[in-house]
Specification:
Length: 525
């Protein structure tokens, strides 16, 4: 039973992206900033290899890391929670969600007032605690709604629970959600109920987010449609407006989020457990509390071994972030930063993947690991870090042995191939040359034709190796003729292992080697 636990450390950026200036950011580096605090702890994450990630030279390196690591650059033009999570789930957003530094336009508020029958107060970017202090009394007196925004793409409505019952406030949010479409499609409409008396107003826990639906199918939809579990922990369900989520637990803060994540390890399911730990961003990043952020990171660092100890053999843990929020930079807003990628599990080879472009590579990799054929934006890195399974090891061994039989006295290039038939049998082949040159046949077609002549027509895996005079060399991909012969019988999703050495191979697919192939389906009848 394969399970992926994907933990988003909300806002834990690892350094500014090349285009940070476009977003009003420079000199931002969330992880570096919190590493200066006395509260910072870096033990479990050091062992994982977090210090080996590109651009983290201020941290101690790990010579024998436990996890595969990488630095991810965002492809979407945004630095907010929604766009960041969408990209992690395989949807790149070419333009940012709208923000309202001068408040919402009149036509939006007029329509909102018309449909709710209530006036509007404030209409500016404002701190959530100050806005109820400054406008609360007037709201209680008049019944007008406090509408405010932030640097994020949000339409927030604050109302006293005695003036506007919570359910009514939620209804107003649904009204706003419908009005805010097209170019005014804000990321979230948020209900912000509060209670108490003037001078002492306090927000209640009945906050509720009404998110914009993702513009296309996400990893979550693809997994749930394939019958897999998508268990959302924390605000994940809100971020995706429930789309593709099969099971959820809302949590209040990191401590509870980590507790629920540990409990999730006891659940039997096949699929994804998608967790967001929000405190880093909400309590410390925006409030520019470097020590608080560092202490929250230390809490996570201390908790991590309790999680990894309980992981099962086929579990994969992925730790990442959705954007930055440097608590020591010049503003309280998010920062355009690279995010860390840490991938850990018994099936994962610790390796440094350098820097990759696209948070969406996570979605492609999770889909790949869980064996679903959906592909959104992004490319899987799983092939680079997954340890070989038994079938793969057997095929790699068979191809290397087959190469020993190569008959290549003219080119001296010896090639071996092994093809796994639907009957479970491995068919091997080597290249066979000829003094007149042209009758030469490649290793792949030898294997394929042996199998077909044995009555086998379906295949699930191919391994290929080659080298000069029996010395393995890393670059022996199948030639064009062999690719064409293979697509006659094999699906584009069929994995192909390009053997680099006795111990290393690259995974690709037949479809990647021969995209838009001419197949029997193209022959017009
Ligand atoms: N060869 C293969 O066996 N497979 C390929 O896909 C590429 C080329 C062989 C054919 C020839 O004997 C030698 O490599 C040099 O081209």
């Amino acid at each position: 039973m394969k399970r992926v636990f994907l933990i988003v450390l909300d806002s834990l950026g690892v350094g500014e992206e090349p285009d940070a200036a476009l977003f009003g950011d420079h000199d931002c580096h969330t992880l570096k900033r919190i590493s200066t605090s006395g509260k910072f702890r870096f033990e479990s994450m050091k062992k994982m290899g977090m210090g080996n990630i590109d651009g983290q030279d201020f941290l101690p390196r790990e010579s024998d890391p436990a996890a595969a690591v990488c630095r991810l650059q965002e492809r979407s033009m945004g630095k907010d929670t929604t766009i960041g999570h969408w990209e992690i789930a395989g949807v790149v957003s070419p333009s940012p969600l709208p923000t309202y530094p001068d408040g919402f336009p009149k036509e939006i508020l007029d329509e909102f007032s018309k449909q709710t029958g209530r006036g509007v107060l404030c209409n500016k970017p404002y701190s959530g605690t100050e806005v109820i202090n400054d406008y609360g009394e007037q709201h209680v007196k008049t019944g007008d709604l406090i509408v405010y925004t932030s640097a994020d793409s949000v339409f927030q409505i604050a109302a006293h629970e005695d003036v506007v019952p919570v359910e009514t406030l939620y209804e107003y949010c649904r009204i706003a959600r419908k009005i805010l479409s097209g170019k005014h499609a804000v990321g979230r409409v948020i209900a912000r109920p509060f209670t108490g008396k003037a001078g002492n107003f306090t927000r209640t826990t009945n906050r509720h987010d009404f998110s914009l639906l993702p513009p296309k199918k996400t990893l979550l939809d693809a997994l749930s449609e394939a019958g897999k579990t998508v268990y959302a922990v924390g605000k994940i369900n809100d971020i995706f407006a429930g789309q593709g989520v099969t099971d959820m637990t809302f949590t209040h803060g990191n401590t509870e989020g980590m507790k629920v994540s540990l409990e999730a390890l006891d659940r039997d399911f096949e699929g994804l457990c998608f967790i967001n730990l929000v405190d880093f961003d909400m309590l410390y990043g925006h409030r520019q509390d470097v020590d608080g952020y560092a202490a929250a990171f230390a809490e996570f660092d201390r908790w991590l071994p309790s999680f990894t100890e309980k992981m099962r053999d086929d579990d994969v843990l992925i730790i990442t972030a959705d954007h930055g929020c440097d608590p020591g930079d010049s503003h309280t807003d998010h920062s355009r930063e690279y995010t860390p990628l840490i991938v850990y599990g018994k099936n994962i080879e610790p390796k440094n993947l350098g820097t990759r472009v696209g948070f969406c590579d996570i979605a492609a990799s999770v889909a790949d690991y869980l064996g679903i054929s959906w592909r959104g934006d992004g490319e899987s890195f799983m092939g680079l870090i997954r340890k070989p399974d038994e079938r793969e090891s057997a095929l790699v061994g068979a191809a290397i042995s087959a190469m020993k039989n190569a008959y290549a006295p003219y080119s001296l290039h010896t090639v071996g191939a092994a093809l796994l038939g639907g009957n479970g049998k491995i068919y091997t082949g080597c290249n066979i040359e000829c003094a007149t040159y042209t009758p030469t046949i490649c290793a792949e077609r030898t294997a394929l034709f042996k199998a077909v002549s044995d009555g086998v027509r379906d295949f699930s895996l191919l391994a290929v190796c080659g080298g000069r005079e029996q010395v393995l060399s890393p670059s022996y991909p199948p030639c064009g003729v062999c690719r064409q012969a293979l697509v006659e019988f094999c699906a584009p999703e069929m994995p192909v292992l390009l053997i680099r050495s006795e111990t290393e191979f690259e995974r690709t697919t037949l479809g990647a080697l021969l995209p838009r192939a001419f197949t029997p389906k193209n022959l017009i009848k």
